[in-house]
Amino acid sequence: MITIDLSTFYEDGQAELSQLPAYVAQALSLVGQGQDVKLTGAASIWLYLKIAHALHGVARTLVYDSPVTGEVVIFNHNPF
């Protein structure tokens, strides 16, 4: 399982919409093809949504994890 803490993608505590392509590229470079991925960390909902969309078709499974919800499966394309 590859864990991506989205809060590490930006400095000064706030993601910038203008940097969205760079955030997506960073996530894709961390994941590779066919991996199980967990997204976590303090980040804007638009960043979570865009990264999740970018990972669809790339990651085998995607899980969101927060202290409030615990792990929530976003998608699972594992055939087994």
Structure overview:
- The protein is of the alpha/beta class and 80 residues long.
- The protein has one domain (2-76).
- The chain is built from 2 helices and 4 strands.
- Helix 2 (45-55) links the parallel strand 2 (36-40) and strand 3 (61-66).
- The longest helix is centred in the N-terminal third of the chain and has 12 residues, at 20-31.
- The protein is globular.
- The two termini are 16 Å apart.
- This is CRISPR-associated protein Csx3.
- It comes from Candidatus Entotheonella gemina.
- InterPro entries: CRISPR-assoc_prot_Crn3/Csx3.
How can the largest sheet be summarized? 4 strands, mixed
Structural class: alpha/beta
Give the overall shape, derived from the CA principal axes.
globular
Q: Work out the number of β strands.
A: 4
Radius of gyration: 12 Å
* Order of neighbouring strands in the sheet with most strands: 1-2-3-4
Helix fraction by DSSP (H/I, runs of at least 4) = 25-40%
Distance between the amino and carboxyl termini: 16 Å
Summarize the helix and strand pattern as letters: EHEHEE
Report the average pLDDT across residues.
Answer: 94
InterPro entries: CRISPR-assoc_prot_Crn3/Csx3
Protein name: CRISPR-associated protein Csx3
Keywords:
80 residues; alpha/beta; 2 helices
Summarize the structure.
InterPro entries: CRISPR-assoc_prot_Crn3/Csx3 (IPR013409). The protein has helices at residues 20-31, 45-55; strands spanning 2-5, 36-40, 61-66, 70-76.
